[in-house]
Predict the 3D structure of the following.
Amino acid sequence: MRAATLTTKDKILQAAAEIAMEVGPVHLSLDAVARRAGLSKGGLLYTFPTKAKLLEALVEHHVAEFDESLRMQEARRNHKVNSVVQACIEVYRAEFVLNEPEPSGILAAIANDPSFIDPIRRYNKQLLDRMKENSEDPTMALIAFLTIEGLRSLKLLDMDTLTHEDQIAAIDGLRQLFAPCDPDKPSQPATG
Amino acid sequence: MRAATLTTKDKILQAAAEIAMEVGPVHLSLDAVARRAGLSKGGLLYTFPTKAKLLEALVEHHVAEFDESLRMQEARRNHKVNSVVQACIEVYRAEFVLNEPEPSGILAAIANDPSFIDPIRRYNKQLLDRMKENSEDPTMALIAFLTIEGLRSLKLLDMDTLTHEDQIAAIDGLRQLFAPCDPDKPSQPATG
DNA sequence: TTGACTTTACCGTCCGGACGGTACAGTAAA
DNA sequence: TTTACTGTACCGTCCGGACGGTAAAGTCAA
């Protein structure tokens, strides 16, 4: 487990996600992943003993990354009203601003076995509950959740339905809908 | 081409979509589809000469069905403001109320070849444009589009993140956000 | 209305290739 | 000496698709 350069595991995960997005999850072969990651098939099988383990890791990695970003955003908003929704918006916004192409590879996992989605299912359910609890208007929390889910799904499927400007407009629109309207915070925070 | 009972083509399409959702698009084999549809592999290949043609038909079918429903909903709302957004909401609502499980199979198509998504890409782009043009507030149109896209993606991935009540709440919430607030139409139409 | 022919809608078999996974010998750094 | 691989060779299975056949339904002239 090195830290300076990209871990072998990370290289493999990234390669797998890229290939899946390029040629489609069906044609995601271990041979191709190994080649793209710059190691042999033996080396790949050494790191991930089966294809299923690789796909599982893909999903785990995706959830873990999102959760980490979310908790960071939440931390700076001490459980105030709408803070979970706001944090979600900001996580998506940060991804978008950094222009992460995010070929997450979860599509590949699901395509191989629908049950790989279970962790995401659980995570999202829990996240939505927290959003609703923390919000003034549970229905608006739902809509916020779904809007972000919509944005994420478009990215997941590599759809350029929204232009860059549209995406900014959507994010800003969401932000305003859930902006803190307290007098002590007259406008949106410029924290990003 | 009979009309009384389900067409062979439709049976195949349905079988393919079902299998894809059950075992994952990767394991969608022509043999399995043929078996499920109640014919031989030869018969299947007679109807769809290649797997690609089958997947293409899956996507086409999906888009065509949605478009038909949408146009019907639009027809009863003569180009009034927000009518496109409203129509979209009602189409989703109708699907939901009828409890269509919609194993649409487009995931299978995309999984086999990402370029199969192109027709959907084009369709959605055009739809979003129409939504924005037809709406008072383009940003809110965006949010409506994304919310519905969120709902659709959850269904596409077979996610039960939202309970039945949540879905109703989300749809009703959307409806209210885009309800005609003209004096001549004081409340939501009960047309459903 | 019969016989000749075409079209439609399949069936069953087979083949080549791709893929997941195994086995194992070797190697270079730490 | 262990860890983290490389590289090669190979196995068994599955799958897409080609192909040859066939039974029934329709067409049409005599």
In short: Residues 55-177 of chain A form one domain. Confidence is low (pLDDT under 50) at residues 182-192 of chain A.
